[in-house]
């Protein structure tokens, strides 16, 4: 099992193309399935201990992986059972089913086991699970949905009732029933019911403890709402080379001070304050804690830390050629003064981090006309206001916006997507839900400012800031405030 940091992310079509490229070299699809099932079996064996295992197999190749895993687990001496939604449909899955010599129960009749493995549907699902019920060869179509319906009492108040089983069909209800009774829940490639590329939940699966991604990460492992159902994610190597411009955000490699370092070589960050000076204060503190050598706040602000240099805003103050990154937007306001300060920032010639209110006062054409590196840090509402609403997935939206504005875009949220104009994308793995509090975005802007001032490539600077921000939040646990988060950046940086 491989950790996911820095690993490529492939869409369903890209994954199929990667597998096809291997197949054209003479490796049959059955061999790839055997590799996947064997890798699954070894991972499950490590986690299951002496517990019994129940593997749920669907009609496609995901189910075929499950049959192979069952066979290998049985050969290892593990007590394993298989329950199928229907007979296999693909040739490879049929061959895998033929290699399993144990009984195959119906999903409707299967009893729970301590270890549940979901191999019903993985990559490529395009419809809700309730629409995927397939009758067995001897089952009249009119009775196909009754088999599962009779197997579980879905009335409110019954022991097996869940909100999902009440309204989303018998397959989902049965999956919840078996998952609720399991001690450990493992999904193969993706929890059944998730859209691979968009991260949509086509149905509501159980929340799994672990998802074993086959060959490469998929967008749904990281995009919400799908990611919340995956639990921990680990990658299994199945011998399919995977390359992509999209990757999981990795731990950054950051410059550290040396004997000849001084405050300016470590990077100078300037932050423009506005009507809510506290937001600019947070950004300034974050830049300092993230490692900037010199931070100056331009505007009205008072109080600690005393290491922060406070200067009245002026065009002259912006003319300092030592400024390595200029942050504008946190608490800026949207009045005439804010517009004047934004105009001055855009004319300053300094690399820019544009956040918060400044994103509401600018348009993509003005950003595109700039000749300096620019990093935009919108949350969903700011993104919609700047680039327009769309039904496209978050990766596509961020990538298109970055290309259109010729800027790095940090599309914030529980599934932060960082995109560069050249198409490169980094996606941050799950962040702390406690970041949903005022001021944490200001902290992120300051952290990114410190990274940009230190000389990092804009995409790397944005990624490093997002990583430090997320690591600081994980260190704090629950119920922190933005001030705590800014302080915790020091520990996050020191841990690298």
From TrEMBL:
Pfam families: Carb_kinase, YjeF_N. Residues 139-162 are annotated as: Disordered. Gene3D superfamilies: 3.40.1190.20, YjeF N-terminal domain (3.40.50.10260). Its cofactor is K(+); Mg(2+). GO terms for biological process: metabolite repair; nicotinamide nucleotide metabolic process. Residues 15-246 form the YjeF N-terminal domain. K(+) binds at residues 62, 118, 192. It catalyses: (6S)-NADHX + ADP = AMP + phosphate + NADH + H(+); (6R)-NADPHX = (6S)-NADPHX; (6S)-NADPHX + ADP = AMP + phosphate + NADPH + H(+); (6R)-NADHX = (6S)-NADHX. PROSITE patterns: YJEF_C_2, YJEF_C_3, YJEF_N. Residues 246-496 form the YjeF C-terminal domain. GO terms for molecular function: ADP-dependent NAD(P)H-hydrate dehydratase activity; ATP binding; kinase activity; metal ion binding; NAD(P)HX epimerase activity. Its EC number is 4.2.1.136, 5.1.99.6. InterPro entries: Carbohydrate_kinase_pred_CS (IPR017953), CARKD (IPR000631), Nnr (IPR030677), Ribokinase-like (IPR029056), YjeF_N_dom (IPR004443), YjeF_N_dom_sf (IPR036652). (6S)-NADPHX binds at residues 61-65, 122-128, 189, 279, 331, 379, 442. AMP binds at residues 412-416, 441. Binds 1 potassium ion per subunit. SUPFAM superfamilies: Ribokinase-like (SSF53613), YjeF N-terminal domain-like (SSF64153). Keywords: ATP-binding, Isomerase, Kinase, Lyase, Metal-binding, Multifunctional enzyme, NAD, NADP, Nucleotide-binding, Potassium, Transferase. Homotetramer. Catalyzes the epimerization of the S- and R-forms of NAD(P)HX, a damaged form of NAD(P)H that is a result of enzymatic or heat-dependent hydration. This is a prerequisite for the S-specific NAD(P)H-hydrate dehydratase to allow the repair of both epimers of NAD(P)HX. Catalyzes the dehydration of the S-form of NAD(P)HX at the expense of ADP, which is converted to AMP. Together with NAD(P)HX epimerase, which catalyzes the epimerization of the S- and R-forms, the enzyme allows the repair of both epimers of NAD(P)HX, a damaged form of NAD(P)H that is a result of enzymatic or heat-dependent hydration. In the C-terminal section; belongs to the NnrD/CARKD family. In the N-terminal section; belongs to the NnrE/AIBP family. This is Bifunctional NAD(P)H-hydrate repair enzyme. It comes from Sphingomonas aurantiaca.
């Amino acid at each position: 099992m491989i950790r996911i940091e820095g690993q490529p992310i492939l869409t369903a079509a890209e994954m199929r193309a990667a597998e096809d490229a291997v197949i054209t070299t003479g490796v049959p699809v059955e061999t790839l399935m055997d590799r996947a099932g064997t890798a699954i079996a070894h991972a499950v064996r490590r986690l299951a201990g002496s517990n019994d295992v129940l593997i749920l197999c669907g009609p496609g190749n995901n189910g075929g992986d499950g049959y192979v895993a069952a066979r290998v687990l049985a050969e290892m001496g593990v007590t394993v059972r298989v329950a199928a939604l229907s007979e296999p449909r693909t040739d490879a899955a049929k061959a895998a089913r033929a290699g399993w010599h144990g009984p195959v129960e119906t999903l409707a009749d299967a009893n729970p086991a301590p270890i549940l493995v979901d191999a019903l549907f993985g990559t490529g699902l395009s419809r809700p699970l309730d629409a995927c019920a397939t009758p067995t060869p001897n089952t009249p179509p009119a009775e196909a949905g009754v088999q599962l319906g009779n197997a579980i009492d879905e009335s409110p108040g019954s022991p097996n009732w869940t909100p999902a089983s009440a309204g989303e069909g018998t397959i989902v209800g049965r999956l919840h029933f078996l998952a609720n009774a399991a001690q450990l829940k493992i999904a193969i490639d993706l929890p059944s019911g998730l859209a691979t590329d968009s991260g949509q939940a086509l149905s509501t699966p159980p929340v799994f403890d672990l998802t074993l991604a086959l060959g490469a990460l998929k967008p749904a492992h990281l995009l919400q709402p799908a990611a919340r159902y995956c639990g921990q994610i680990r990658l299994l190597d199945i011998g399919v080379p995977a390359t992509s411009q999209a990757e999981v955000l990795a731990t950054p490699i950051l410059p550290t001070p040396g004997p000849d370092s001084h405050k300016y070589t470590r990077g100078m960050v300037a932050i423009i304050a506005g009507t809510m000076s506290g937001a600019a204060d947070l950004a300034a503190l974050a830049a300092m804690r993230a490692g900037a050598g010199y931070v100056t706040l331009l505007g009205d602000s008072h109080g600690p830390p005393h290491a922060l240099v406070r200067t009245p805003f002026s065009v002259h103050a912006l003319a300092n050629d030592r400024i390595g990154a200029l942050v504008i937007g946190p608490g800026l306001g949207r009045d005439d003064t804010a517009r004047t300060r934004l105009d001055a920032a855009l004319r300053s010639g300094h690399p820019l981090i544009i956040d918060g209110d400044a994103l509401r006062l600018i348009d993509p054409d003005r950003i595109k006309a700039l000749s300096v590196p620019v990093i935009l840090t919108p949350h969903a509402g700011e993104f919609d206001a700047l680039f327009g609403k769309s039904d496209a997935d978050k990766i596509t939206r961020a990538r298109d916006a970055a290309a259109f504005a010729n800027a790095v875009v940090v599309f914030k949220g529980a599934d932060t997507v960082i995109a560069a104009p050249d198409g490169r994308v980094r996606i941050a793995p799950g962040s702390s839900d406690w970041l949903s509090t005022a001021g944490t975005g200001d902290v992120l802007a300051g952290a990114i400012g410190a990274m940009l001032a230190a000389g990092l490539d804009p995409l790397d600077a944005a990624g490093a800031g997002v990583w430090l921000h997320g690591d600081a939040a994980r260190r704090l646990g629950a119920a922190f405030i933005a001030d705590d988060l800014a302080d915790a950046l020091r520990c996050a940086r020191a841990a690298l």
